[in-house]
Structure formats: structure tokens, C-alpha cells
Amino acid sequence: MREISYEEQTVKSGNPLARFAHRTRMTMAIGLVTQSCAKSGTVVDFGAGPGLFLHELGEARPDVTLVGHDPYMAPTFPEVEYAESLDTVEAQSVDVLTAFEVCEHLYSSELDALLDDAARILKPSGAFILSVPIMYGLAIAPKVSNWMIRSHSFKSEYSPAELLKAMVGIPVSRPQNPRTTHKGFDFRELRKIVSQRFVIDAVH
């Protein structure tokens, strides 16, 4: 089976709706980070993948120092520095920390560690910008269909009953391993956890 690249899964997806969603998200993310980052500031992207977001950000903000962290993908853009872990990032040295489409794949202990690291490395005026999928409400239907199209399968990890529950906002149980699935992820729970540690300025 041919391995699907990160770009083919996101901004170059064969599904036009998924492609539009990812490109729109990228544009919004660049705008938010650009507004939040001081001149000649530092942006760290947790779960940076091959560094596509940081590369695009660098084209919009060439003054910014770009740092990525991803244990599973090698960097492909020379202007992006890579940190082996957030432990290597100096305390209160980061203007903006981002984590796009990552938290839904973390175990509870890993999410706690990320929030600890965020509190340590961000400057007092720094911003922590998160993006996660909405797996409840009407948004669930196109997301499940996109997964089926991408995997060339008529099977879904959601049963019909689970799909209906998710569409009306009723929690669906999550698989034990969150690494390769969004099933049952509830952004409302994440928001509650984050709000215990940080002031949430805005939700988009």
C-alpha cells in the first residue's frame, strides 16, 4: 500500500472539502500567530510534522525564529530548527507555542506534560494556540466520509449508532490508543483541562 504523505492528507488532499478545510485552517493559523508574535520573536510548533506550517509562517514573517518538534517526522525545510524535545527549549523564551491537530492524539499524561512545558517555556506575554478537530455535531459526517475516501474503504470506525450519538453531541467512547484516530475526541473536555492552567482569550 502506498504511503500517503502529510501534504496529501491535508493541504493537497484528494477530497476537495478536506483540502479546503486544511488550507483555511492554515491561513487562519498563520494570521493568529502573526498577530500574537512580537517582532523577531520565537515560535515553537509542537507536532510540527515536516514543518509545512512553520515554512508558510516564515514566508509571512521572515523575522521570526522557527522551531519545530515532532518525534515521528523528519524536517524538510532548512529554515526550521528542530528541538528533540520541549525540555531543550529555554524557560520563558517563546513568544508563541502552537499545537495544531495534535492534542487529540495524546494520552492524558502526554497532554499534562505539554501543558507543563507550555507554562515553562512561554514568555509572560506569550500565547499558546491550539487547534483540534470537532468530532461532534454535523461536522462529524464529512470527517468520517473523508476518512473512508482516503482509506478506500466503506467501513467506518463509528457504528451507525455512534455516528448518530456524535451528531447530537452525545459522548462516544474513545479507543485505548489515540495515536491514529479522532474517534470520540471531545474538544469540550480539552477546553476544560486547558482552562484550569491558562486563560482562554478566544475560541474560533
TrEMBL record:
GO process annotations (BP): methylation
A GO term, aspect molecular function: methyltransferase activity
Presence of keyword Disulfide bond: no
Pfam assignment, any one: Methyltransf_23
Gene3D superfamilies tied to this protein: Vaccinia Virus protein VP39
Taxonomy, superkingdom: Bacteria
Protein name: Methyltransferase domain protein
Organism annotation: Caballeronia terrestris
